[in-house]
Amino acid sequence: MVVYGGGELNEYLAVRTPSVNGSPSGRLLDGLGFEPRDEPLSGGGGPSPSLSEARLLPFATTINGDVVFWICESVDPETWEIVVFKRQPVCGTDPWTWFEVGFGEFLVGLLDGTVPNPFSDGSWYGLPHIVQNWREY
User: Is 15 part of a structural domain of the chain?
Assistant: First the structure.
């Protein structure tokens, strides 16, 4: 994110970043109730027992209203895992999908199909993926 910043994938998934001059994607920390790099009150050292207790930092959204979060249970962002809230889950299924991977592995896995599609739109795979950097808006 430092090199490329925020942007969109396939005009479907919008990735936000911390504030960058001129970037419409730079509102990542707006309204957040905690500082992500501070030590968690739980003491850290692993994921919270439940998502209701986890420190979630939203960093991406889809046009269907799905939200992708970092799980901030460590002072080291390199260890943060990913969880996706699916706004339109199949009746009776859990809207939350937890991925034991970081940001880069999650996004690359979405693009190459090695990470299962957690989103409401099932047409993610097989597309010629288009990445648009915020500087191209």
Answer: yes
